[in-house]
Amino acid sequence: MRVLVSGGVMLAAMLVALAACSPVTVLNGVARGPFTVTHNIAYAPNPRESLDVYKPAHAYNAPVVVFYYGGSWQDGDKAMYRFVGAALASKGVLTIIPNYRVYPQAVFPGFLKDSAAAFAWAHAHAADYGGNPGRMFVMGHSAGAYNAAMLALDPQWLAPFGLSPHRDIAGFIGLAGPYDFLPLTDPVLKTIFGPPDELARTQPINFVSPGAPPAFLAAGTADHTVSPGNTTRLAKRLAQAGDCVTVKLYPGINHTKLIGAFSPLLRWMAPVFQDSLAFIHHTPPKQRSGP
Q1: 151-208: per-residue pLDDT in tens?
Q2: What burial class does residue 271 get, using C-beta atoms within 10 Å of its C-beta: 0-12 exposed, 13-18 middle, 19+ buried?
Q3: H helix intervals, the chain
Q4: Are 99 and 167 in contact (CB under 8 A)?
Q5: Domain span holding position 40
Q6: Structurally, how many domains does the chain consist of?
Q7: What is the DSSP string of 218-256?
Q8: What CATH number did the domain enclosing 254 receive?
Q9: Does 20 reside within a domain?
Q10: How far apart are alpha carbons 134 and 98 in whole angstroms?
């Protein structure tokens, strides 16, 4: 027997599910597709320094995304973002989601060192999972977008691994990232980022230079957690340096909906997933020559 379910009934069922458990549980619960996941691969010795690999079915020479989640550098876990890994892997993108040390276990620049180490692992092992190390992207949401931006703009973080953003990062995708967020008012963030006279070195916008990887920067106009001004100011600075940047502001979208819209359940809210995917597939591979 064929049962037809109206859109209103489906929406009601979704709302009941959301009320019964956390929204991320619902998003992860429907995260299925033609991919496999390898969990908890160590990229460094600390228990927080592990990652999950989402491998597309029949992956060959696939683009690679290293996705850094947010959490104010104080919390978060890679398991919460299965829906992101599933969304990308289902569209042919090898996706790597690392955990990294957060406060109080780590302060600046500990989480950047972990982010760089995870990227270096991904670069070294991408081909083992059908990925192309010449098509590697860093992507992040919120604090994770900060981590990704620092790897893309400041060469010092990848240098210990013999890597360079100019040579080894094909593109940077920043979703609702804090890139220019001084002065600090939160006491915990003041502890995380250190003495006031050294804070300039913590701001991604201060490391923009010609030759940066192409960037796709997105934010929601209703974001009251991280001001969209971070996105527009970084985009302007990149454009002034002659770097390739695309910026999208999604009307009425807040901080959490921006990343939630990666799930098939919520893509109707904003095309941020589709726009990110288009950026990945239309950005050319990095050339492997040069310093």
Answers
A1: 999 999 999 999 999 999 999 999 999 999 999 999 999 999 999 999 999 999 999 9
A2: middle
A3: 7-20, 23-29, 82-89, 110-125, 143-153, 165-168, 187-193, 229-240, 255-260, 272-282
A4: no
A5: 36-282
A6: 1
A7: EEETT-SSS-THHHHHHHHHHHHTT--EEEEEETT--HH
A8: 3.40.50.1820
A9: no
A10: 20
